[in-house]
Every structure is written in structure tokens, then in C-alpha cells.
Amino acid sequence: MRGMVVFLVFLFVLMFLAWCLNVYRHIRAGGWKGFAAAVDIIGALIIAGMTVAVALPLLK
Predict the structure, then answer these.
(1) How many helices (H) and strands (E) does the chain have?
(2) I want to staple 12 with a disulfide (CB 3.0 to 4.6 A). Which of 25, 32, 38, 51 is the partner?
(3) How many other C-beta atoms lie within 10 A of the C-beta of residue 27?
(4) Cβ atoms 55, 13 nearer than 8 A
(5) How far is CA 20 from CA 2, 5, 47, 57, 60, in A?
(6) In this structure, what are the phi and psi dihedrals at residue 8, rounded to the nearest 5 degrees?
(7) Burial zone of 34 (CB within 10 Å; 0-12 exposed, 13-18 middle, 19+ buried)
(8) Do residues 55 and 2 touch, judged by C-beta distance below 8 A?
(9) How far apart are CA 1 and CA 41, in angstroms?
(10) For residue 16, which of 36, 41, 37, 53 has the smallest C-alpha distance?
């Protein structure tokens, strides 16, 4: 069971890093305003929340 938790957290971390790379590219391109900024921030929060929501119940 612990191996599954570690693997799921690893996948979520990879997804979060890809999301952060996308945000970085938006900021560097200069088009990170308004709706794009809101979607990027909310998406990162959703990914972080999913990581906690999936990992914590499986650790008990």
C-alpha cells in the first residue's frame, strides 16, 4: 500500500512540475494576465489539493 502512495504522489509531483513549467512559460512570454493567471494559480492549487486528498487517506 505504501508503494502505491509513493507512486501516486510521484505522479502528482510530475504533473505539478509540468504545470509550473507552463506557468513559467506564460510569465516569460508576457501574456500572464487576467484569466490566464487565474487558471494557472487555481490549477496549481487543485493539483496540490488532489495530492493531499489522495495521499492522506491511503497512509492511514
Answers:
(1) 2, 0
(2) 51
(3) 13
(4) no
(5) 27, 22, 11, 26, 30
(6) -65, -45
(7) exposed
(8) no
(9) 31
(10) 41
Cell 494559480 belongs to residue = 41
Amino acid at the residue 60: K
CA–CA distance from 34 to each of 19, 21, 41 (Å)?
Answer: 17, 19, 11
- Written as nine digits, the cell of 5 is 502512495
Within 13 Å and on the Cβ side, how many CA atoms surround 39?
9
Length of the chain equals 60
Q: Model-level pTM?
A: 0.70
- State how far the Cα of 57 lies from the Cα of 59, in Å rounded to an integer: 5
